[in-house]
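Hi team,

As requested, here is the filled-out complex form for the iron/sulfur cluster run. I kept the field names the same as last time so the parser does not choke. Let me know if anything looks off before we queue the next batch.

— J.
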Amino acid sequence: MSKLKELLLAGSEFIVTCELVPGRGHEGKAIEQIIEFGRKVASSDVPIHAVSITDNPGGNPALSPDVLGRELMEMGVEPLVHFSCRDVNRNMMESRASALARGGLNNLLVITGDYPVGGYDGMAKPIFDFDAVHALRLLKSMNAGLEVPGRKPGTFNRLPATDFLLACAVSPFKRHEAELLPQMYKLEKKIAAGADFIIPQLGYDMRKFAEILKYLKYRGLHVPVFGNAYAVSKGAGSMMNKGLVPGCVVTDELMATLSAEAEAPDKGKGARLERAARMMAIFRGIKFSGVHLGGFGLKFEDFEHIIRRSEEIGENWRDHAGELRFSQPDEFYLFPEDPDLSFAEERCVPVTTARKRVLSPNYHVSRCFHRYVFTEGAMLYRMGRWAYKLLEKSKLLTRAAYFFERNIKRALFDCQECGDCALFDLGYLCPMSRCAKGQRNGPCGGSRNARCEVDDDKPCVWTLTYQRFSAAGKLDNMRTQYIPPADNSLERTSGWANFFLGRDHAAKMSQPDMQQNVKP
Ligand code: SF4
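And here is what came back:
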């Protein structure tokens, strides 16, 4: 069992993790700084319990966190390795996880990952074969000993169990209801899939951080949550303010503050460390289980300063509760105002949200079609099954039927022919064409103003799905239904045939072990 897991299970200590970002290449200044940081952590009594290493941050190539994690571990420092879904398919994920387990690197922060922005000789291909819920489920299954097909058909073997400690992320700094609630719903799915603790995206609104604790309390979920205190500089803040760092929000008001602070002789360094220390003290005060510290270019001594200063603040954290409230214009909050972060009962009951209306004719026609054709037991369902059983006896008829299906679905949904259709799971919106990361279990963390992280001319498809499920009175589905990954062997085959003949994920979803024990 990793030291971090022991600490979390003990629950008696406020845990500190520090995030470091490796550079590109096998050596260089950024990498040397991480090694130097590791040496200082190993030889000091500063309470830094783990060092977190990012995985090709910002969608750019960088030295693998697995390699640096290994080196830190050899120094006696506990690594927390980021494990993203962007660059590899499920097989490489499993093989990477086996390598990590064999190397004793058991603490993983499982994330979707920022969309690729660069690479050798042009932009890298985004893979996103899995979303973060799929990845957590795979890693949790490995902890139980993965069941794999045996030599004889129908037989299975169980692989040796791993012992991963799994963290997941959530991005509460969303301006709109239709952005925020899907984040919380996906968080519930991540917990049900196996997340052991939560590290939120960075932000500067303590009310939004507190809402994570309130949401879990309201849902009866007891999972450790860390705060995220990123000592933001004017430079980094300006990039976040412009939306250049997916999911990271620096409001105009905070940007003005950072600019004023940068006028100081220390270019604002003192102020940014003080802000991080105050956030850390507040996180400790309102009973987060720990804090995830970060900051561009920070040295060991800077992290030490933040930690010691937060201890100095101690019980006076309330003095600062009101100052870290950088919210976006008309930002949606799930819980009533709580100026002193008292967590009083009446302030821990979510606001009621109005049922949405959807005008799209495509949505209403699809819903009708689904009810009478694609619902087991429906009038035309049996006919569909019978027809496809018949059709599949003839290659020509199969091709003709698929030609018809393909062109209808392309016109209506921009179908990408995955063959494992998830239209129903997203309210008749296609995750393969409408979501740049093909997310099947809820949004990534990168949307901004309900616009897609990758193409802000487009709405994040999950905000539309939220509105459609709200209109249909089926919001619980977004929270409780685990959507398996696409089976790529079905690519370029008939999604209708695969559905009626029980070859796609919809058939799997009815299997008892497929649905996760998400709280009703
Ligand atoms: S559509 Fe939404 S979930 Fe998909 S990549 Fe864009 S922001 Fe992320």
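Two things worth flagging: Residues 333 and 395 are 55 Å apart (CA to CA). The mean pLDDT is 95.

Thanks,
J.
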